[in-house]
Each structure stands twice: as C-alpha cells, then as structure tokens.
C-alpha cells in the first residue's frame, strides 16, 4: 500500500508482531496510555475506502476497541 490516503488508526489493545503482518505496509506502534492501558497505532497509506474498511474489519476481528481514525495531511 504505497499510494492512497494516509491514515492513523488507534485502537485499545496490543497487536503483537504475529498479527501486525495482517496490516502489510502499515507501521504498527504499541505503547501504554497514561493509565497503563495498551494502545496500538497503525499508520500507513490506504488505497481507497474499501481497503480502509478491510483494515477496520481486521481490527474488529481481533476484538480491539477503536479509539480513532484520522486522515493524515500530506
């Protein structure tokens, strides 16, 4: 996914390296929120809305709570 719109997607929970391969081309960063809750941020280009929905569906399938989806300005 090198072309398209860049998004930053934040979810509550931890995506381990094994699962991060599902999000090919996206940067996956896991960190702790101030309250100690694990938060994962995925950042990368998504070619179209259908692909964005595919990423969100994968997060849903992992039972992760969506925090935010932000379109990144170039």
Would you give an account of this structure?
The chain is 23% helix and 41% strand. It is of the alpha+beta class and 74 residues long. It has one domain (5-71): Alpha-Beta Plaits, CATH 3.30.70. A 4-stranded antiparallel sheet has the order 2-3-1-4, covered by helices on one side.
Q: Compute the average pLDDT.
A: 91
Cα separation of the termini: 16 Å
Main sheet: strands, sense, barrel: 4 strands, antiparallel
Give the CATH class: Alpha Beta
Topology-level CATH name: Alpha-Beta Plaits
Fraction in helix = 10-25%
Give the DSSP E fraction (strand runs of 2 or more residues): 35-45%
* Number of strand elements: 4
Query: How many structural domains can be distinguished in the coordinates?
Result: 1
Task: Report Rg.
Answer: 12 Å
* Oligomer description: single chain
Quickly list its features.
single chain; 74 residues; alpha+beta; Alpha-Beta Plaits; 2 helices
Task: Provide a compact summary of the structure.
The protein is an alpha+beta fold and 74 residues long.
Furnish the topology, listing elements before pairings.
Layout lengths: L4 E8 L4 H4 L6 E6 L5 E9 L2 H13 L3 E7 L3
Antiparallel strand pairs: 1-3, 1-4, 2-3
């Amino acid at each position: 996914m090198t072309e398209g719109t860049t998004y930053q997607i934040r979810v509550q929970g931890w995506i381990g390296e094994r699962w991060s391969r599902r999000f090919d081309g996206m940067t996956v960063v896991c960190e702790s929120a101030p309250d100690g809750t694990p938060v994962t941020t995925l950042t990368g280009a998504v070619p179209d809305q259908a692909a964005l929905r595919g990423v969100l569906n994968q997060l849903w399938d992992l039972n992760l709570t969506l925090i935010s989806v932000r379109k990144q300005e170039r």
